[in-house]
Amino acid sequence: MFDTNLPDGPIMPTLLRQMKLVFQPLEYLEDFAKVYGDNFTIKNKSGNHTVYFSHPKALEQIFTADASKLDAGSENEILRYLFGSHSVVVLDGIPHRNQRKLLAPPFHGDRMRAYGATIQDITQHVIDSWQDTKPFNVRNAMQEITIRIILRVVFGLDEGIHLEKLRNCLISLLELVGYPVVSGALLFKFWKKDLGVWSPWGRIMHLLKKVDELIYSHIQETRKNFDENRKDILSLMMTARYDDGQAMTDEELRDELVTLLVIGHETTASSLVWALSWIDQLPEVQEKLQTELCQNIHEPSELAKLPYLTAVCQETLRICPVFTTCLSRVVKSPLNVMGYELPAKTLIIPNIYLTHHREEVYPNPKQFIPERFLERQFSPYEYLPFGGGNRQCIGMAFAMYEMKIILGTILSQYQISSLIRRPIKPARRGLTIVVPPKMQMQATPR
């Protein structure tokens, strides 16, 4: 007989709780976990409650559940304004499965590795502009690298006015989306008002319209002058076909391009900054990494195979996951998770951050210890920086590959150090958790 009661959870005013979620996202999770444990429920008046799960056994049951019992698309409606209705993030069921099948090939195997030289060339171009020991905004620098990689690899844009226009519009849009007050608009409907270009939401809509104009223009130009020898992801998506032989429409291409731009650019840039920050704080980690990098290994494929560099990237994504939770799921028919019988319409949120900070899985979880990934392999229910189940990030392998090449290229030539010696307090940026936006570092040639 299953326990039909949901896990215990906090009783506090909705507005106060949501404000804490926006402005203190990690404390929001940690404080509730201290009181209620691995799994806790946020109740609401409608009776369709939200349950956070972080026990590996619970995550395994959720990620391996019959897909027909869970809807993961509709609950990500808040992202539709940016990604569009055809994005793999907001689709569900057969449309979601078909879209993943179409998008997956460029992000794996030889096709993915073919982008290694491009990633390294762009990284080298950006770091060549650094001046010895002159402070620079590290987040801006990593964003410059990752956005140029996305525009080259995904769009096939290398240089020119179109690239610069799209780059500038995207940076402005992502900066605005990152403000906490705008993040709040995703939770509070009364903030989501278009009051003209000078209002936060109105400004987002204005910039998004400009981005759409540039993307549609590029799609049409690529179709007009299509070259079957091009290897950028847009060209590959144009040649891909669904099972019925149909190609992707311009609207479908646009939505997937924006999804790749936002998720692929912002998350990788943030993870790189976290990695540089942790390496700077821990001389023993820096020394081990330098010993490995000093073996005259510079080719992208060789950098990507370095075990300690890989472990540093994995530990960065464990201790500082850019997304604190996976994409949420809605229960469509009663589902049992760890003895709790979840009724239909219950919202499930698999919790990445709390799972990654479990003492019994990761001893001393607040400490940055790359060696833990050299000593054992963690299950996909213990380590899930890219989500899990059929909603796992489609670009997971590419993101890790990109991160290792960028870090290896930078650290083989420079020692990166922070100008401020104090603990770094994570900050919310849109739906992600990042280092403070104005963090300054300096690069000293090796």
Number of helices: 19
- For the largest beta sheet, what order do the strands appear in spatially? 1-2-8-5-3
Please identify, by name, the CATH architecture: Orthogonal Bundle
Percent of residues in helices comes to 40-55%
Radius of gyration: 22 Å
Characterize the quaternary organization of these chains: single chain
The count of β-strands is 12
Give the DSSP E fraction (strand runs of 2 or more residues). 5-15%
What overall form do the CA principal axes indicate?
globular
Structural class category: alpha+beta
How many discrete domains? 1
Largest sheet: 5 strands, mixed
Instruction: Please report the first level of CATH classification, the CATH class.
Output: Mainly Alpha
In the CATH hierarchy, the third-tier topology is known as: Cytochrome p450
Can you walk through the features of this model?
It is built from 19 helices and twelve strands. By secondary structure, the chain is an alpha+beta fold. It has a single domain, classed as Cytochrome p450 (Orthogonal Bundle). The strands form four sheets. The chain has a five-stranded mixed β-sheet. Strands 4-12-9 form a three-stranded antiparallel β-sheet. Strand 6 and strand 7 (about 340) form a beta hairpin. The model has no long low-confidence stretch (mean pLDDT about 85).
